[in-house]
Amino acid sequence: MSDEPEKRTDLKRSGVFTKIYWFRSPSLPEGKGFIVFQDKAGFLYLRKLVEREGLATPFSSVQEIEMAIEMRLELVREENYLGNEGDREAKP
Fold first, then answer.
1. What does the pLDDT look like over 56-86, one tens digit per residue?
2. For residue 38, which of 69, 10, 60, 9 has the smallest C-alpha distance?
3. 74 contacts 26 by C-beta, under 8 angstroms
């Protein structure tokens, strides 16, 4: 069980995710926000939940995430996600 966090990190590098989104919320301090991954099937995952529990909590929309965290989200940035930091391509 001690290797569980390593397995979760490997999920991010395994090619499961295709996009990464950065969101902010007007109710959070400047510079704070949420990172959301999207998988090949279109499901969305909060980064903090993926780190904690793997792919156990998918969301079907941004509105569903907003209801779960009880905050309105504003998209800041979106990029293709190919697994590694250096492999990302920015989307205008």
1. 999 999 999 999 999 999 999 999 987 654 4
2. 60
3. yes
Cα 4 to chain centroid distance, Å, stands at 19
pLDDT, tens only, 24-56 = 999 999 999 999 999 999 999 999 999 999 999
Q: Which residues pair with 85 in a beta bridge?
A: none
Cα 39 to Cα 60: distance, rounded to the nearest angstrom: 11
pTM: 0.74
Backbone phi, then psi, for 67, in 5-degree steps? -65, -40
Amino acid at 74: E
CB 13 within 8 A of CB 42: no
Instruction: Show Cβ contacts of residue 70 under 8 Å, excluding neighbours closer than 6 positions.
Output: none
